[in-house]
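Before drawing any conclusions, I looked closely at one protein, both as residues and as discrete backbone shape codes, quoted below without any editing:
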Amino acid sequence: MIADDVTLGEGVEIRYPDLVNLYGCTIGGGTRIGPFVEVQRGVSIGSNCKISSHSFICTGVTIEAAVFVGHGVMFVNDKYPRATNELGTPLTDKEWGVSETTVRESAAIGSNATILGGVVLGRHSVVGAGAVVSHNVSPFAIVAGSPARVLGDIRDHHDAN
């Protein structure tokens, strides 16, 4: 379902609109969204990105231009998740805080990675498949593992411009 409050740039490609859940978000021109993707309210995705199937992009996430998000990538926006407060009653929106996450231009996130709230993935950085990212990733860094650790620099492998 694509809600009426979604802003789609020119040339956005969503091949299976009945198999996505987009609401209150902005998707830049030329971006491709795969099936079974959810993009929540307030998310901004830049132009010419690829968001692969089964990914979850929650409130508080900003993705800049030309970013690749692999299959099954999960973003988390709450550093201290709880269902109830000290009194045992469900948390209200006022009791819950969003941890902002930014994915800078031309970054790539491998399949099944988890990106915890409050981090910045630098320009041209690469997150390996299955990684759990809990800290900022420097521009051009290659990270992998759980927790994600720096393995190298993408410029050592090819010209990332």
